[in-house]
Amino acid sequence: MKREKDKRTMRLFYAIGLWRLLDLSHLRDSLRDVTQLRWVTSDRVHITLRFLGEVEPGALQELAGKLRDVAGKHEPFVLRWGRVGSFPRNGLPRVLWVGLDELSEEQVVNISRDLGNDQPTPHVTVARVRGVLPRQVAKQWETVECGWPQVPVNQIELVESKLTPAGPIYRTIAAEKLKAKS
Description:
Helices cover about 20% and strands about 35% of the residues. The chain has helices spanning about 25-30, 60-70, 100-115, 135-140, and strands at about 10-15, 35-40, 45-55, 75-80, 80-85, 95-100, 125-130, 150-155, 155-160, 170-175.
C-alpha cells in the first residue's frame, strides 16, 4: 500500500534562484518542433544546491540557520554558462540542462557541499522529456549554444516546492546574502 504524504511536511530545497532572469526562447526555438519536451518557465529557473525532500515545519529554523552559516562563508560570484546536455547520460534522455563553466561550477559545488550535498551536479534544468526523445534530437540539443548572459549570484535560498499538475510552485522560505570573506 502506498504511504500517504504527511500533510504537515514541506518539500524543500536549497537553491540559487534565477527566477525570471534568463530567457529560454532561444533554447526552445532550437528544438521548436519537438513535441516531447515540456519547457521550464522562466519563473521556475534555478540551480538546486541540495534537495531536502519532505521536511517537518519544526525544522525550518535549523535549515534557515544552516543557510545563514553557509552564506556567510562564501563571496558573491558570477555564473557563466557552459555546455548543454541531458540526463541520464547513458540511455533515454529525461531532462535537458544547461551547465556552468569550470569556475562557476566549482563555486556552486563548494556551496552545495557546505549545505550537505555530497554529490552535486550543478546545472539548470530547461526541459523535461515526455515519452521518448529521438536520438537525432538529443544529438541536435548537444550542439545548441546557450547564449545566456552572465548572472551575478548574491544570495542563496531555502525554497518550498508544491507540486501541481501544471508544474511546481516555488516559494522562498528564507534567503541569505553571500558575504565577502574577512
